[in-house]
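Async update (no meeting this week)

Hi team, since we skipped the sync, here's where things stand on the single-chain job. The sequence we agreed to prioritize is pasted below, unchanged from the tracker. I ran it this morning and attached the output directly underneath so nobody has to dig for it. Comments welcome in thread, and please keep replies under the output.
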Amino acid sequence: MLTTANTETVLESATVQQIRAFIVENFLLGKDSGFDNSESLLESGIIDSTGIMLVVAFLEERFGIAIADDDLVADNLDSVDCISRFVERKRSYKDAA
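Output:
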């Protein structure tokens, strides 16, 4: 039986997988370098500031969320884990509205 906690973990896992797959395909030419999901994408050089805008466009389209200029901060977009948590927060706000 799936509990709410288990369901959230499965959903987050799917979100993480989709975000990671997008980053690998678009920034690492399809070759997963084995980077950690908590690793800074900017500091590690995986994504540059222009690439963040491509990630934002992907997130808006794929997850049906709106990302405001105020949302474009490292706390939200620095790593796969940060991005995933940000997407889940935005989706929960959208669902609550």
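Quick observations from my side:
The chain has one domain: 4-96.
The mean pLDDT is 89.
Reply here if anything looks off.
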